[in-house]
Amino acid sequence: MTEVLSFTDPRVLRAIQLVWQEAAVLDAKDYRTWETMYTDEALYVIPIDPDTDDFESSLNMVYDDKRMRELRVQRMMQGYAPSAVAAARTVRIVSRFTVDEVSDTSVTIKSAQILNAFKRDKFSTIGAEMTHKVVLDDDGDKIALKVARLIDSEDAVSASGYLV
């Protein structure tokens, strides 16, 4: 990063706003809206290796293109999958934004996310280092890439039943 990128840059603010909106949509379990927040070519990835950028050749907990996101949303909404039955109540806190790249058409930002969940009388917390590439468009900004690097990704992770 050769230039100092400002959080007052309207492009950066638009990207941060979209990331916060995504967190709110997921906490509301509005999965259909969540699905529309992504470009058709977008990937949603939760890698196991915390240092990899080669998601296609690495083992991932989630590696969703458009088709897989659609299938995931169907499972979350149909009520028959274990992840959909008595879905957890969640609250996401997304903060500590840093800017990787800014152009007139896209912004790549990193952040920290703490996801608190309550299900079946139990609380759980998941921490993740997030990367979002946001495509800027006058017709509505969209997510082109979301990578959630769980801080415990190399340990056994139980089925969360919600999207990170």
TrEMBL record:
Protein name as annotated? Aromatic-ring-hydroxylating dioxygenase subunit beta
Membership in a protein family = Belongs to the bacterial ring-hydroxylating dioxygenase beta subunit family.
From what superkingdom does this record's organism come?
Bacteria
Q: Which InterPro entries match?
A: NTF2-like_dom_sf, Rng_hydr_dOase-bsu
Q: Which Gene3D superfamilies match?
A: 3.10.450.50
GO MF terms on file? dioxygenase activity
| SUPFAM superfamilies listed in its UniProt record | NTF2-like (SSF54427)
Keyword field contains Glycosyltransferase: no
Arranged from A to Z, the UniProt key words for this protein are: Dioxygenase, Oxidoreductase
